[in-house]
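Protein data:
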Amino acid sequence: MKQKLRELFTLEWIQKFVKENINHTDWIEQDCGEKRRILEVVTLFHGGNGAYIPGLVLEMFEQAEGYDLENPYNWEKNATIHDALMFLENEVNDCLNELLPSKNVARKLFNEGRIIYLTPSNIVATDSSPWIKPYPINNRAGDNFDNIVNRYEYYNCNYELGYYTNFWISEEKEAISWQNS
């Protein structure tokens, strides 16, 4: 799923789009009590496709097998198409949360020993600025995640760079051990 999302969307484009449209976001509260801003990006298909859109989305993610994409009104074959979309949406959301993690996801991975990179909210981790680089943190020093993030925001976040922290996780390659036989 991660690879498919990378093929369909440029994560840097998503970051730029959100940065430019941040004033159009809504606040929602998660079950865990965390508040997040959401911005719906509805640019996959033109609305004129109407009833064909669910099939087009499933086809894009290679999950349309068994559905009648030529006739979206074929209730016999398409009875569960909206359920399939709901499951796909959850899978995509989980994958995006891993690729662009929230504070709770970053905290969990930090506590598991992974390296988390911090940037102010208006900075993308791939920006090639000589002045602002992603700041790596891990739990090897024994410091608390929230203390590190609070200090980072106090010293690095402001009006120009953004008041909050973005969390980035690099995909670590598995080490291959070669054994002589």
Remarks:
- Confidence is low (pLDDT under 50) at residues 173-181.
